[in-house]
UniProtKB/TrEMBL annotation:
Species name: Ottowia cancrivicina
Subunit structure, as described in the record: Homotetramer.
Annotated residues for binding of K(+): N65, D128, T164
Reactions accelerated catalytically: (6R)-NADHX = (6S)-NADHX; (6S)-NADHX + ADP = AMP + phosphate + NADH + H(+); (6R)-NADPHX = (6S)-NADPHX; (6S)-NADPHX + ADP = AMP + phosphate + NADPH + H(+)
Entry similarity comment: In the C-terminal section; belongs to the NnrD/CARKD family.
GO biological process: metabolite repair; nicotinamide nucleotide metabolic process
ATP-binding as UniProt keyword: yes
Enzyme nomenclature, EC number: 4.2.1.136, 5.1.99.6
Residue numbers binding (6S)-NADPHX: 64-68, 132-138, 161, 273, 331, 387, 454
Name the UniProt record assigns to this protein: Bifunctional NAD(P)H-hydrate repair enzyme
Length: 505
């Protein structure tokens, strides 16, 4: 067993693949072995999390997830702890393994109660063993009441395999849990599942632990995992910080940020988004960084740029950019003006990051989407960085539909546009055509502030300019972007400008 951290590259397997692995393991192991191992692992972790617990309450459901909890209760009782089991089930309808664990727990003298214990304190522990990976509907009735009691108490919560109600494949939760009052932990068994690390999964699971139960089974040769957690090991990124002494700024790539619309007619000024992306590219190590602000006719509005926040950045008119020689970050604050320049950018730029209003322009034009696909055929690199609403516009869907299956949305967009897609959000999903997506394990709610997405776009641009392939460039940039937020000083506000300034090559 080990704790999964942001430093843990890990294959993630779907529910269907996990079932196949479980079935294969049961063909070579003695009956009841997997549940015995799962229960022992759960009991060991429970003891480590709450060694001084007055009460360890195990809420056990009517299936094999409940069986894991019953098995854990037997061990905790044998070790001198005070487990209390609330069980929802009918013995005659239990799966064979769960029935065996129920009998073992009763024979050991474990205390059973029909109602959850009152007065749970911070030193106590609640174990959620109600519904596992096979659940397809939200909890209701007594089960829902028990969950509400569990998460309203001051006790820590340990979920077995997945928190009840969480879709292990997608991370969607029909009834999201309330903000935690205490620590949450999840022990995922046999395989790690993608839903634990994206959408509602990160909030519901808290700290995730993994035990493969010593199972000898594996997927058939050639069957990939559903996703990867962290950057895929087979996709290294050139070490941008290792620079020779005999180098100059032209060695590290030119980035041009095309956006920052200023429109007197529409009363808009979105120059800040372009500056943030450019600042990120600069501090992330790009050799030269140009900013191309846009006005109604696709030309700069000089009056809006009188004070340069960072003198290292250089202004350029769009017509003065050498599009075939640069890495472009297009769309940050681009407004409607970006529509005029986007066709030329798509045709000419060898390396391109599309963000914000550039993505919105794509969503409204099948011709522009075809131009994105054509870029791949010509060997050009393209990375899109949509948030859920922008992804929904591209898919002709809704943001809520995207959030219900973030991996599927990212995979569909990557295949449709033949490009790398970075679907931002909790558990950012990075997808590329023809390979399992990556779920980024870093980042937190500090990033829910204006401009942090522009910073990510600029950071990816710098990685592309340094010569990285778009897939690892996007994975590394998302990881670094989130890790900065994770390491942010506790009493200091995170702003996008300061985030950009803290980037490193």
């Amino acid at each position: 067993m080990f704790r999964i951290t942001r430093q843990t590259p890990l294959p993630l397997h779907s529910v269907a693949a996990t079932r196949r692995m479980e079935h294969a393991a049961m063909q070579v192991l003695a009956a009841h072995t997997l549940m015995q191992r799962a229960g022992l692992a759960a009991a060991r972790l429970a003891l480590a999390l709450a060694p001084h617990a007055r009460v360890i309450w195990l809420a056990c459901g009517p299936g094999n997830n409940g069986g894991d909890g019953l098995e854990a209760a037997m061990h905790l009782h044998a070790w001198g702890m005070r487990p209390v089991v609330s069980w929802l089930g009918e013995e005659e309808r239990l799966p064979p393994d769960a029935r065996c664990s129920l009998q073992r727990a009763r024979a050991a003298g474990v205390l059973f109660t029909d109602e959850p214990p009152a007065g749970l304190s911070a030193q106590d522990l609640c174990v959620d063993a109600l519904l596992g990976i096979g659940a397809t509907r939200p909890p209701e009735g007594r089960m829902a009441g028990w969950l509400a009691h569990m998460h309203a108490s001051a006790a820590r919560v340990l979920a077995l395999d997945v928190p009840t109600g969480l879709n292990a494949d997608t991370g969607h939760m029909a009834q999201p849990l309330p903000a935690p009052r205490a620590e949450r932990h999840t022990l995922t068994l046999l395989t790690a599942k993608p839903g634990l690390f994206t959408a509602h999964g990160r909030d519901a699971c808290g700290t995730v632990w993994f035990d493969d139960l010593g199972a000898p089974a594996a997927l058939p040769a050639g069957e990939p995992p559903a996703a990867w957690l962290g950057a895929q090991p087979a996709a290294p990124v050139p070490p941008a910080a290792c620079r020779p002494h005999a180098s100059h700024k032209g060695c590290f790539g030119d980035v041009a940020v095309i956006g920052g619309e200023c429109s007197a007619a529409r009363g808009t000024a979105m120059t800040g988004a372009a500056w943030l992306a450019a600042s990120a590219a600069l501090h992330a190590g790009a050799g030269r960084v140009y900013v191309c602000p846009l006005a109604d006719a696709g030309e700069p509005a000089p009056a809006a740029w009188a004070a340069l926040p960072e003198p290292e950045l250089m202004l350029r008119r769009f017509s003065a950019l050498e599009l075939r020689a640069i890495t472009a970050v297009c769309g940050c604050g681009g407004g409607q003006a970006v529509q005029a320049v986007l066709p030329a950018v798509l045709r000419a730029c060898p390396r391109l990051v599309l963000d914000a209003d550039a993505i919105n322009a794509l969503a409204a034009s099948t011709a522009l989407q075809a131009a994105v696909r054509q870029r791949s055929a010509e060997g050009h690199a393209t990375v899109l960085t949509p948030h859920p609403l922008e992804a929904a516009r591209l898919l002709g869907s809704s943001a809520s539909a995207v959030q219900q299956d973030r991996l599927a949305a990212a995979r569909t967009l990557a295949a449709r546009l033949d490009a790398v897609v970075v679907l931002k959000g909790s558990g950012t999903v990075i997808a590329a055509p023809g390979q399992p997506p990556c779920i980024n394990p870093t980042g937190n709610a500090r990033l829910a502030t204006p401009g942090t997405g522009d910073v990510l776009a600029g950071l990816i641009g710098a990685r592309l300019a340094a010569g990285a392939h778009p897939w690892p460039a996007a994975c590394q940039a998302a990881w670094q972007h989130g890790a900065l937020a994770d390491d942010w000083p506790a009493l200091q506000s995170l702003t996008a400008g300061e985030l950009a300034r803290r980037l490193r090559p």
